[in-house]
């Protein structure tokens, strides 16, 4: 979670009144944070905020929210946005590179070292969190007086433009920045495979920014800077807007005046930033049921105002205006959570029940534990593997019939592209890594699989041995079913996983609950194993349902 460092006196200055440090140490955690480094007489404070509140990744955001939470200034803080003649033209060439950009101007900012430190920390934390290490969005802040509008956002050839990047005194082209500059080398992978790179230039062709890599040295912000230009570029329009709104309102907390910028994109024009709030309506009675507390509509509205949200009660309904700096409000339950926080977590709870009760295991847990005991008694060693798998090993190599597959969006590696539908491939990967160890090797796992987009508990056991056979797999399977007291039948199995004629399906009440047999040479070779393997895999849902599916 992001750790925010700030000075106590600076926070009080932004709050507009001096709040005792002890009060802040007690109340800040109640809004969703963990205090760090507040011991002793030092004015340095550190707060670790939950990831869902990027609007509080800076002392300015903390001050805005604490003013409402402490009752100093409840409700939504409104910021005026004045019109300007600044124009940013978005060239179509960036659509296939980094398509989204929003900008804003901030005037008459009193910039000191405290402000610059806070701004840099805010940028970095937004880059790392909602920006996904700049892959999703990147923020640039510039000295507006050093450049001349209108600005152009376009894609350029690697050797087309030369400029001096930030933290350097050497002029480079775009390609040179990626290979020679420290930040260029660190973030070059974000533009990998692109033939042209995004760049923001002014009316004279001077470079403001080479997003998402580095700003130009020309627009470096110093304590002498008075007027700022902010750009946010990325691949997610919603995230770009949230980041811009958070940054410019933080600057406004320092006394800056926000100026709108005209964004011209393909013939259409819009004004940025748009700080308009979003409108919500929730049921106070539903919120009370959700929280397990009798909270009236008026109390719910007051609680939301303490969270920096404008709210009013009308009958059972609570109407809310949520500021644009709160991207975490995506569903009415998010407002229920804010009601709970604003109402005060310390107000929840009650007397402890003196009724004596007896706890019991859930049926799923009881069945799983029984299966583990049986397999350990049969001489198997338990393994625990990842729920992630790959389509190639899950279905291509193993011969398992393909189910409704749950795919991973933007997988990091080709080994983790989906959720597993069987435990068998996971255990085969373990045997592959241990194929040079002594035989026999007997391993099992009791774990979750995803079948038809629903989670199910499975048992799988595999044996790698020079004498592994169908008979051995049958004896293990029958031992498990006998110990569980299950009446079953065996049926012919044509699964490609097994050698033809050496695999069988396990049937209970006419329903197939698993299979066992001698694994085919094609599957064994596909997993790069050099010894015979037998396996058994059972779907434990039948056993769980037989125990009632609840507690036992």
How many domain regions?
A: 4
Largest sheet: 7 strands, mixed
Structural classification: alpha+beta
Q: What is the terminal separation in angstroms? A: 39 Å
CATH superfamily of the largest domain: Phenylalanyl-trna Synthetase, Chain B, domain 3
The CATH class label of the largest domain is Alpha Beta
How many individual β-strands? 29
What percentage of residues falls in helices of 4 or more residues? 25-40%
What this model shows, in words?
The chain has 552 residues and is α+β, with helices and mostly antiparallel strands. The chain folds into four domains: 3-69, Phenylalanyl-tRNA Synthetase, Chain B, domain 1 (2-Layer Sandwich), CATH 3.30.56; 81-272, Phenylalanyl-tRNA Synthetase, Chain B, domain 3, CATH 3.50.40.10; 278-345, Phenylalanyl-tRNA Synthetase, Chain B, domain 1 (2-Layer Sandwich); 363-546, Bira Bifunctional Protein, Domain 2 (BirA Bifunctional Protein, domain 2), CATH 3.30.930.10. Helices cover 29% and strands 28% of the residues. The protein has 16 helices and 29 strands. The strands form seven sheets. Strands 13-12-11-8-5-16-17 form a seven-stranded mixed β-sheet, with no helix packed on it. Strands 21-24-25-29-28-27-26 form a seven-stranded mixed β-sheet, sandwiched between helices. Strands 4-15-6-14-7 form a five-stranded mixed β-sheet. Strand 2 and strand 3 form a beta hairpin. The model has no long low-confidence stretch (mean pLDDT 92).
